[in-house]
Write a structure and sequence with these properties.
This protein has about 675 residues and is of the alpha/beta class. Helices cover about 25% and strands about 20% of the residues. The protein has 18 helices and 24 strands. The strands form six sheets. Strands 14, 15, 16, 17, 18, 19, 20, 21 and 22 form a nine-stranded mixed sheet that branches. It has a five-stranded mixed sheet with strand order 10-11-12-3-13, sandwiched between helices. A hairpin with a 7-residue loop joins strand 4 and strand 5. It is globular and about 75 Å long. It starts with a strand and ends with a strand.
């Protein structure tokens, strides 16, 4: 879950949002990985009276062999693909390392061979055999072997740090019940937590678990194949391994750096390292089109083109091949917007992050605006401009309001006020009533929220599965804002036991968001205002907590109504329904859904992820989406779109929302 989005407020031009996995080039500064709790941060409109730039002469092209990206908050957490779970790190990794498969240009659900030339799947969907590309060299000159692939996958399992990406890799091999890590040191052997491999499946025996993993992923260097055996059929398997955590390492080089040598007897000491104690924290040796030249932490990351890159033929029709056309990439960490703007104006930056509230200052510099939703068609903008703007790019992100149907009150809980329906609080099971949930949904003004916060550059999803995903039904109606419906649903709720005094006494409860996140603050204020219009005795207190405190309360199921965002890890609807609707999901695990409904959703989730029939899967996911909406499990509020600004002399850019950042290999510079 590269997701727990905590970000602060950006729109950007380039660069995913962390938190879960994300896309490339446009959204906001990278966040940090984890289940999904962040939102595109504050995205308020430009302040009234914001100074507009005066006419600026078009700059001359600078450094034609170097692309400079001025970014905000984009210092990587780690350069180790098994450890990294943030987009800043992923953006570097995807240009230096490579996996078995890669995305077909801008297609998030089509894959091309990369370090594997082909693959086959058994009839039962459990066994995958990959033919490994021959003659590929790592950047230090070592030759890629099948055993490097097997080592890389098992090493990721072994390392499996807290809040890292390896849960995505563990699930296909050990089962969907693995929602955490290979080993959770806080869990005692035999505990049935359902979130780690060693304790729940191997009674605390790390060596046995390691050996089991090695039997699941077997390399044959003579045949140049790697055979992988899954726990159960896994529909999104290629999607799971196509991202940065599926990168292939040079085993002999990694061991030389002090990393795990492949011996299970010594494996546990390499489990859950801190970023800077990880042997591959700041070192890289991949097979990709670029190599790491410099990492000046907090200031700049530089990449150099790999002169011996193996791809002599394009990976996709019309794609790049041979040595990268741009010899050097300079990623400069520039947190002050005025400096980034100046770099665009002078031509010192080819790409730059643009916070949403500064769009008005940059748009006068735009010469042409291009459709970022897929067709790439461009229209003239300002005759004296010199930038190119891609606009309306769909992001694989949602930001929603969640209801907890049975709030944890152990030790007291001030979020519920008095804890009773006496006008000064609500009971812990307040949101267990479907009419209460439907009333809150109807009292949220979706259009006003999207206009005020996103300047209209977002769409309202019609459930937990966002637009563009398998199973998304564009004909399905999203939730609707209606004060009349809100009022009638509260009246219906008052007919239920325990809520008879709802409309006469009113209620008080706290809506929570993380401190500094203006987006989530505004969402709460809009909802509070409309609830009060329906009944002035309905009090929704819009309160904030520092992120660490908010995260603790959310994970402890102590929050009644709260706002969070999810950013996709891998492109498959399972990455949405599992956290939103599944038992133990990142969000649903804290929401106490009705047990009968939960059992129904779990069965559908498991059936869908196990199927290899995409038509069947789409039908099952559409069914899950409808269940979530019909039961008003959450307020499904917004799926933001993104922008990307670049100098008009840059060519080859395309948008793939699952990328961590830019794929520089596809780019060139020239008038």
């Amino acid at each position: 879950m590269r997701k727990l989005l905590v970000i602060v407020s950006f729109v950007m031009v380039a660069g995913l949002v962390l938190t879960a996995c994300g896309p490339a080039a446009t959204t906001a500064a990278p966040a940090t990985s984890a289940p999904a709790t962040s939102a595109p941060a504050t995205a308020s409109p430009a302040p009234a009276g914001t100074a507009q730039p005066t006419a600026v002469a078009a700059p001359a092209i600078k450094n034609p062999d170097t692309l400079v990206y001025a970014c905000e908050g984009c210092d990587p957490q780690s350069l180790d693909p098994a450890w990294a779970y943030d987009t800043a790190s992923g953006g570097i990794i995807q240009n230096v390392y490579e996996g078995l498969v890669f995305y077909n240009r801008d297609k998030v659900d089509q894959y091309v061979p990369m370090l594997a030339t082909s693959w086959t799947t058994s009839a039962d969907g459990l066994t995958w055999t990959f033919n490994i590309r021959q003659g590929v060299k790592f950047q230090n000159g070592d030759t890629l072997k099948a055993s490097d692939v097997a080592y890389s996958f098992v090493r990721g399992f072994i390392q499996s740090r807290d809040s890292g990406p390896q849960w995505i890799m563990l699930q296909p091999f050990f089962g969907p019940s693995v929602t955490g890590t290979f080993l959770d040191a806080t869990v005692k052997p035999g505990d049935k937590t359902g979130d780690d491999v060693v304790n729940t499946m191997y009674n605390g025996d790390f060596v046995a678990a390691c050996q089991a993993a090695q039997k699941m992923i077997v390399a044959d260097n003579n045949a140049n194949t790697v055979t992988m055996t899954l726990k159960q059929p896994w529909g999104p398997f290629l999607a799971s391994i196509a991202n940065s955590w599926g990168s292939v390492l040079d085993q002999s080089w990694a061991v030389q750096q002090g990393d795990w040598d492949g011996n299970c007897a010594d494996a546990q000491k390499f489990n859950n390292p801190d970023a800077q104690t990880d042997p591959l924290f700041d070192k890289m040796n991949g097979t990709g089109p670029y190599s790491l030249a410099k990492w000046d932490k907090g200031n700049e990351i530089d990449l150099d083109a790999n002169p011996n890159y193996w791809a002599t033929q394009p990976l996709w029709t019309g794609g790049p091949s041979g040595t990268a056309k741009i010899a050097h990439i300079a990623i400069k960490i520039v947190n002050e917007f005025g400096t980034r703007l100046a770099m665009l104006e002078t031509g010192d930056a080819d790409f730059a992050d643009v916070d949403r509230n500064y769009i008005a200052q940059v748009d006068p510099l735009v010469k042409e605006t291009c459709d970022g939703s897929g067709n790439g068609q461009c229209q003239p903008a300002n005759a004296n401009g010199f930038l190119r703007l891609y606009k309306g790019m769909p992001g694989l992100e949602e930001d929603d309001l969640f209801f907890n149907q049975n709030v944890n009150v152990v030790g007291g809980n001030s979020f519920l006020g008095s804890g009773k329906l006496d006008g000064n609080g609500v009971p812990p099971n307040f949101f267990a009533d479907i009419h209460v949930r439907k009333a809150f949904v109807a009292c949220f003004d979706f259009n006003t929220f999207i206009k005020q916060v996103y300047n209209g550059e977002a769409v309202q999803p019609n459930g937990p599965i966002p637009p563009g995903e398998l199973g998304y039904d564009s004909s399905a109606q999203p939730q609707q804002f209606s004060l009349d419906t809100c009022k009638s649903e509260f009246a219906a709720a008052a007919q239920d036991p325990g809520l008879a005094d709802l409309n006469t006494k009113g209620f008080y409860l706290a809506y929570m968001y993380n401190t500094g996140n203006t987006t989530r603050q505004i969402a709460g204020q809009i909802l509070a205002q409309d609830l009060a219009k329906v009944n002035p005795k309905f009090h929704l207190a819009v309160n904030d907590e520092p992120w660490p405190v908010f995260l603790k309360d959310y994970e402890g199921s102590r929050l009644s109504a709260f706002w969070l965002g999810w950013l996709e890890d891998y492109h498959d609807p399972n990455d949405w329904v599992a956290p939103y609707l599944g038992s133990g999901g990142a969000y649903s695990g804290t929401q106490s859904f009705d047990p009968t409904l939960q059992k129904q959703m779990d069965a559908l989730i498991n059936q869908a992820v196990s199927s290899s029939d995409q038509t069947q899967r789409a039908s099952l996911y559409a069914q899950l989406n409808k269940i979530a909406v019909d039961n008003a499990l959450d307020i499904f509020a917004v799926a933001p779109t993104a922008r990307h600004y670049e100098q008009e002399w840059v060519h080859g850019y395309y948008y793939n929302p699952i990328y961590s950042s830019f794929y520089y290999y596809a780019l060139s510079k020239g008038q």
